[in-house]
Amino acid sequence: MYVNVLIETRVKSNDMTFTYHAPLKLGSDLIGKRVLVPFGKRIVEAFVLEYTDFDNTYEVKDIISVVDDETILNEELISLGKFMSNKYLCPLINCYQAMLPKALKANAKNNYGVKNLTYVRLNDFSNNYDIKIKSQLEIINLLKENKEVLKSLIKSKSSLKKLIEKSIVTQFNKEIYRKVNVCINSNDIMLTKEQASVSSRIKQAFDTNKTILLYGVTGSGKTEVYIDVVKEVVRNEKSAIILVPEISLTPQITSRFKGVFNDEIAILHSALSDGERYDEYRRINRGEVKVVIGARSAIFAPLKNIGVIIIDEEHSESYKQENNPRYNTIDIATERSKTHNCPLVLGSATPTIESYARAKKGYYEYLELSNRVNERPLPNVTIVDMKYEIRKGNSIFSSILKEKINDHLNKKEQVMLLLNRRGYANYLSCKSCGFVFKCPNCDITLTYHKSSGMMRCHYCGYATSKTDTCPSCKEKSVNNMGTGTEKLEEKINDEFPLARVIRMDADTTSKKGSHHRLINDFNDGKYDILVGTQMIAKGLNFPNVTLVGVINGDSSLNIPNFRSAENTFSLLDQVIGRAGRADKEGEAVIQTFNPDHYSIVCASKHEYKGFFAREMMVRKKLNYPPYCFITLIKITSKDFDYGINEAKKVSIFLKNNLSSTTSILGPSIASVLRINNNYNFQVILKYKKDDMLYKALNEIVKIYEGNSKIKVELDFNPVNL
After folding, report:
1. Where is the domain boundary, 619, 649, 675?
2. Considering only CA atoms, which of 362, 356, 337, 361 is closest in space to residue 210?
């Protein structure tokens, strides 16, 4: 028997496989398993993809051994990997590696293996053993009551050893899953009339591969609809995938689902340990769960007979993978929807412009939740022009925000403050000579983190201790410039000394379980004010939060990206929606230097449809999605001159090989020229349809494969340019 296997090599050819002989002793069920094979002078792991005929014209080596007892890539996932490779023009091996937890990747350096515990049991429960020793009798009676007991719980190890030697007791190993700890929220779910109608419409789409856009205002109860739909799926003996964009959202939505489906749930996201992800993946693969909840990578969960796929907060940028393979989760979900003939539900209070446009055109079915569950009004929003506040000496808190914070704290209500920038100061500069501290590896300023006393680069990870002396003029005149969440937390403690403050950003949530702990502590009322970055803006539900403050509403508006207005509207509308979600009315304050910008005005009025109309006018004039597709070609080299020259060659090649209707922009310098001592250039393609596109791009990939001096990567429909 012969098989074709896929090996991780430096050759980037998407479909390069190698043929090996599989000795009969290895078994006949090898497809989708990892095997050890000789490859040159090395022994490597490979994925078995298919059986093949062999014509004996050349020598074929034997597979050494099989790594996996169970199939880890089923037939659907093998096919899905090929779809990804063809769609994104990336190596097939990368696609399979992206699907699997670390312990199951080919050539995984850490094999976490199965976790076993040793148990003991009686060989014959009916036998009245002629035992006189009290400690041995106690063990026998314990085993009669419990059938099997963890060996470590037996106190008298010597007595146990004697019983094992007499063959009265047997010890054995039993696999134990590394359990993911989840709180259970078992509140009864009663659907409103509007929710029940939407749920019914989704159920009518069962056994079809429709894509449904569920637009629901913040607090309208989309999660309750999801649960009701998944209940019906499970009743029909099928399974479901529910995706959330941020790890911080996973504990809350998981606790809701856990209260309904108990142990039929598996969780997949990067905050789990490698061992936990390994066990969760195998539980899914063995058919022991019906529902999978997780972040982006959970879309690859090896479920069989999927009845619905739900992507919550579908607008989130985190659903786009930013390194190879640069897949869009919605693309993968759509393909799996077709395979299983099940509906794909995209839910959001702020859908992407592209998704809403597709719904208006009829490509997606459109459903709407226009009211909050408790019939409460959406928060009243005040826009503060910070140009005038700065003149009054209010650089962080406007007068009205300070007043409202005090008012809500006096009412024993909670406050959330959004500042989408972590650290203490955005950068450090010398007020004597103007020197600015920059990363030596990147064209970016260093961010000061006061808690650690370090200046850090958020691109390459470089860090150095903060100094008060300017390295240029030697004066002790280094100044902190800008404000991050760390400084904001400090200022809150100064302004509101009696308030209990908690901060939630990438620095405070780096440890395992920190998201869960922070969310629970705030929800339990242990803190009055939650300060955070965008991770607090969407999906979280805190009944006692009645005021939301946005410290700098312009932060995403000033990013040079055609999506900046959309991202600003989405961020603001989502974070405003955290207020007044229970029986108390909510309000919000947006501090901005651009109070008249349509994204901010529309967010303050909760007018998604008004924003969509304005944004579509801008997109049409500038020919941006959804009026075209975009492909970004990234060219990276350690040599600036070589990189820009090759980027020019790429641009010329495309002009000669693509349709005249395709716009070719560049080459140009990327938004950050140098990252980790690599110079970055880009060519942007804008097109509606170009039959020559994939052929030309595939040719470029082949031209540069194996070239160690330059890296050329493709990003289809990128999130950022």
Report:
1. 619
2. 337
